[in-house]
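Anyone able to model this chain together with glycinamide ribonucleotide?
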Amino acid sequence: MVTKKIAVLFSGSGTNLENLFIKLHRKVFNGVKIEIALSICNNEDAGGISKSLKYGVTPVVLKHKDFASRGDFDKKLVEVIKKADIDLCVLAGFMRILTPYFTKNVRAINIHPSLLPLFKGADAMHQSYAANVKKAGASVHFVNEELDGGEVIAQKSFMRTIDMSYEEYEANIHEIEYEILPNAVIGLLTNSNFVSKS
Ligand code: GAR
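re: yes, here you go
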C-alpha cells in the first residue's frame, strides 16, 4: 500500500493538529495510507506540543528567535521537511510569514479562518467578527509567497445570526476548519482532480 507522509506546522493550541491526528493519522483513504510523520512548532510553549506527543510524534521545536533572519529560519524548516521525505506540508495555525525560499521548495497548504480573499493576516477571526459580516467561514489554500494569497482549494461558510457571540462565531469557524482541512489533505493526496468549495 502507498503511504503518503504529511508534516504539520503549528504555533499555538494545536486543535487543528489534534483533529488531523484523529481523522487522518495512519488511516487509509482510497487505498492511500496517510501518516503524520513530522510536526514542527516555532513556540516552545505551544499547547500543540503535548497534543503531538500524545499521538506519538515528538515535535521538532524550532524557535524562530534563535535564527538570525527569516531566511535562515526558513532554510532550517525546509531542511527538516526535506529530510523527512514529506509529500505535503500542512500549516495548522503556524503564525509565521514564510519566504519564497520556503514556498518554492515545499508544497504546502494553510488553514485560514476567513472566506479568503477577505480578511487576510494574523487576526482574521476578530476582524471579520468586528466587521459584522453576514457570511463567515474558513478556507484552505496553497501557500505561496503572498500572505494568505495562494489558490483557494476548499472553503465553507455559515450565516451569522444577529445575536451570535464571538465565542459562538469562533466555534462555528473551528468546526468548519476541522472538516475542510482533513478533507483537503485527503483530496490532495488521494485524488488528482480534487476541488472542494461550498
Ligand atoms: C486556527 O483558527 C487557524 O485558522 C488560525 O489559527 C488557529 C489555530 O488554532 N490560523 C491563522 O489565523 C493563520 N493566518 P489551533 O492552534 O487550535 O489549531
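Helices lie at 15-24, 48-54, 70-83, 100-105, 124-130, 166-190.
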